[in-house]
Amino acid sequence: MFSRSNSKGKVAARIRLLWILVWIPTVAAFGQQAAKDLANPDANVQNAISYNDRGIAKQRKGDLGGALADYDQAIKLNPKNAFAYNNRGTAKEKKGDLDGALADYNQAIQLDPKYAAAYKDRGNAKRKKGDLQGAKADFSQAVKLGLKSGDVAESPD
Length: 157
What we know:
Helix content: over 70%
Order of helices and strands: HHHHHHH
CATH class: Mainly Alpha
Number of strands: 0
Structural class: mainly alpha
Shape: elongated
Largest sheet: none
Radius of gyration: 25 Å
CATH topology: Serine Threonine Protein Phosphatase 5, Tetratricopeptide repeat
Mean pLDDT: 85
Low-confidence stretches: none
CATH superfamily: Tetratricopeptide repeat domain
Distance between the termini: 84 Å
């Protein structure tokens, strides 16, 4: 009748077929969603805003790791989001990563040269690194862009 090896081969073939029938539609659906995301940049921008806002909430609660993950996702969805770069910079600064914070502040300013808070935040990071001249220049620019002088510098750490 049937040999044992022949029925094992049939089982293996059925498992492969089942795997193909389950995974191909899953992969196809993922590809279709990715295509929709690329075709709908407005959705990405809105999702980026949501991740940024969630990052702010996490940062306020002291969850800097969670905040950084959300800011990273916001930037991934919308690399032109100056607010997400600036917010990620403040989280990095709070974690003690001044160089990372400065890179994010620089990117925020490059994306939006009139973003006064980014100049203020970069000035604070420069002050912490000992670059007092650079800090002063950034604080002056923040004031020129509309921040009140009393709101510019943080108190020293």
